[in-house]
């Protein structure tokens, strides 16, 4: 979606749809007073008739309002007080939904002039352009992109003065780039498992390297991984005909040689559970088990667009987890790249088996920080539901930065403990470590497992099992936590 900012008056602007916020209190604001006057008291009448409440989340579409140059006037309710982050995002989404009409080619709005709780006009412009572009995403098979079905719709943000015009322009750039990353992640997530294989992800990474000069891609084959001793990762793909790949995308934006942030995304392109086969219900959703990887692809794409001065490496261990006569069996013992042996008690706890080798490999980049993103445990969905991503870290400063980035981006995470008492649940009679931790605290013991491989650097783990996709009617990938990660990375480049 094309978004721009302009200094202009809402009354005389020619547009297919003018979107204006309206609060729940009786009083009209500056813009709505002008509109009310120009239209001969239309808003006052709508209010008196009970059609216009200004209630949070409500909207009212008026057609061909006499006295305005706009073809439609869409009033969106902002409620009683200044909207906070979550509320403003909901308002943006409501406005985007109400204006999703093919006949509407240009949308113009004063929404970034609204007074917000704790955020400025630049932030509002960023969210608005992000939310509109995300709302226009529609999965189209073979489209190869995720620009959406209404990509030709144009959005104009009306500004009251020069200062806010500059701020809005900066916000639009960031919001647009965030949406590009989010929609890219959604598209990869939504692709079916027979198309989105490890080889497909590898080809996408190579294409990204060709497209963006700032990104260089390297893909390790099974043979190369075998030479590196990645017995844990390879034990997961042992039952599949699809070869595994370890994909590395390096974004170089810093002028000086600075240590990179390494993002590691779980890329299980289909998780059947392996020999510890999953039940049939909703098993199709395990095509989303590569959403951690998809978020890494999304972030790399956004970085290539924004070009911040920092270095980021995206690592994606990618496999398909299938049962077969060559598959790893419960009880098998494998040796990871770190040298630690692992007793595979459940082949469905495969995410940690591929991540541990990728996390060991990550140390080769001499990282400043390593963050892994994974649809790791059903237990995390039990604990936090679908609103917050589970966050674990061996560094409280890093945890706080990520939590705050999530707050700013409206893409929230909640911290979970990595205490020794949970780590103690990982005991094996036959290897250094088992791949499951017994009853209780499944998302924590999974994180503790990863923690055994991340002692040498600052590390955070994000369990996105509950936040990476929606089930049921609105089934589809969400693109989370691309907004959180980008906000964090951009805060480092300041
Ligand atoms: N990919 C799943 C986690 C998952 C399950 C994500 C449901 C979203 C929804 C992961 O590989 C898995 O199967 N985890 C097991 C671990 C268990 C065997 C210790 C789980 O959560 O059941
Ligand atoms: Mn699994
Ligand atoms: Zn999995």
Element layout with pairings:
Elements: E1 2-7, E2 17-22, H1 30-38, H2 42-48, E3 59-63, E4 72-77, H3 85-98, E5 106-109, H4 121-135, E6 154-159, H5 162-190, H6 198-211, E7 215-220, H7 222-228, H8 231-237, E8 245-252, E9 261-265, E10 267-271, H9 291-306, E11 311-321, E12 333-335, E13 341-343, H10 351-362, E14 369-374, H11 378-384, E15 389-393, H12 396-409, E16 413-415, H13 420-423, E17 433-434, H14 442-451, E18 458-463, E19 469-470, E20 476-477, H15 482-492
Parallel strand pairs: 1-6, 2-4, 2-5, 5-6, 9-11, 9-14, 10-11, 13-17, 14-18, 15-16
Antiparallel strand pairs: 3-4, 7-8, 8-11, 12-13, 15-18, 19-20
Helix pairs in contact: 3-4, 4-5, 5-9, 8-10, 9-15, 10-14, 12-15
The protein binds ligand BES, manganese (II) ion and zinc ion.
Residues 268, 271, 289, 350-351 line the site of zinc ion.
Summarize the structure.
This protein is α/β, with parallel strands linked by helices and 494 residues long. 36% of the residues lie in helices and 20% in strands.
Radius of gyration: 24 Å
Q: What is the domain total for the residues? A: 2
Helix content: 25-40%
Looking at CATH, the homologous superfamily of the largest domain is Zn peptidases
State the CATH topology of the largest domain. Answer: Aminopeptidase
Rounded to the nearest angstrom, the distance between the terminal CA atoms is 27 Å
Estimated share of beta-strand residues: 15-25%
CATH architecture of the largest domain: 3-Layer(aba) Sandwich
Total number of helices: 15
Mass-distribution shape: elongated
Low-confidence spans: none
Quote the average pLDDT: 96
CATH class of the largest domain: Alpha Beta
Q: Tell me how many strands there are.
A: 20
Bound molecules: ligand BES, manganese (II) ion, zinc ion
In terms of structural class, how would the helical and strand content be classed? alpha/beta
Major pleated sheet: 9 strands, mixed
């Amino acid at each position: 979606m094309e978004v721009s900012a302009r200094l202009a008056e809402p009354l005389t602007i020619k547009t297919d749809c003018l979107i204006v916020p309206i609060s729940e209190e009786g009083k009209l604001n500056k813009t709505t007073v002008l509109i009310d006057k120009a239209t001969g008291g239309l808003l006052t009448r709508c209010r008196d008739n009970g059609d216009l409440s200004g209630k949070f989340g409500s909207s009212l579409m008026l057609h061909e309002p006499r006295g305005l140059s706009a073809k439609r006037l869409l009033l969106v309710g902002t409620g009683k007080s200044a909207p906070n982050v979550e509320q403003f995002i909901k308002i943006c989404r409501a406005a985007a939904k109400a204006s999703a009409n093919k006949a509407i080619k240009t949308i113009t709005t004063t929404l970034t002039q609204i007074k917000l709780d704790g955020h400025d006009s630049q932030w509002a412009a960023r969210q608005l352009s992000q939310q509109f572009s995300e709302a226009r995403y529609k999965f189209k098979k073979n489209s190869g992109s995720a620009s959406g079905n209404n990509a030709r719709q144009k959005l104009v943000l009306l500004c009251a003065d020069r200062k806010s015009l500059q701020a809005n322009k900066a916000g639009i750039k960031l919001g647009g780039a965030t949406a590009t990353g989010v929609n890219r992640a959604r598209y990869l997530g939504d692709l079916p498992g027979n198309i989105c294989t490890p080889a497909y992800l590898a080809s996408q990474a190579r294409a990204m390297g060709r497209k963006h000069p700032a990104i260089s891609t390297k893909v390790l084959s099974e043979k190369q991984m075998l030479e590196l001793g990645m017995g844990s990762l390879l034990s997961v793909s042992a039952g599949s005909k699809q070869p595994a790949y370890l994909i590395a995308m390096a974004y170089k934006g810093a002028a000086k040689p600075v240590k990179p942030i390494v993002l590691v995304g779980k890329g299980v392109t289909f998780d059947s559970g392996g020999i510890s086969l999953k039940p049939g219900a909703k098993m199709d959703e395990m095509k989303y088990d590569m959403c951690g990887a998809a978020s890494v692809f999304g972030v790399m794409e956004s970085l290539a667009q924004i070009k911040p001065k920092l270095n980021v490496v995206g690592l994606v261990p990618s496999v398909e987890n299938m049962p077969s006569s060559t598959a790893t069996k419960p009880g098998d013992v494998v040796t990871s790249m770190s040298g630690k042996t692992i007793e595979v008690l459940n082949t469905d706890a495969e995410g940690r088996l591929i991540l541990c080798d990728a996390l060991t490999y990550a140390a080769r980049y001499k990282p400043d920080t390593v963050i892994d993103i994974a649809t790791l445990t059903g237990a995390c969905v039990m604990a936090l539901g679908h609103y917050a991503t589970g966050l674990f870290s061996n560094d409280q400063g890093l945890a706080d930065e990520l939590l705050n980035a999530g707050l700013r981006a409206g893409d929230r995470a909640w911290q979970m403990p990595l205490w020794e008492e949970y780590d103690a649940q990982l005991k094996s009679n036959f290897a250094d470590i088992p791949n499951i931790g017994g009853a209780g605290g499944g998302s924590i013991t999974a994180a503790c497992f990863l923690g055994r491989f991340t002692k040498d650097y600052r590390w955070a783990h994000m369990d996105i099992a509950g936040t990476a996709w929606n089930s049921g009617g609105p089934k589809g990938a969400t693109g989370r936590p691309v907004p959180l990660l980008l906000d964090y990375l951009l805060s480092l480049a300041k």
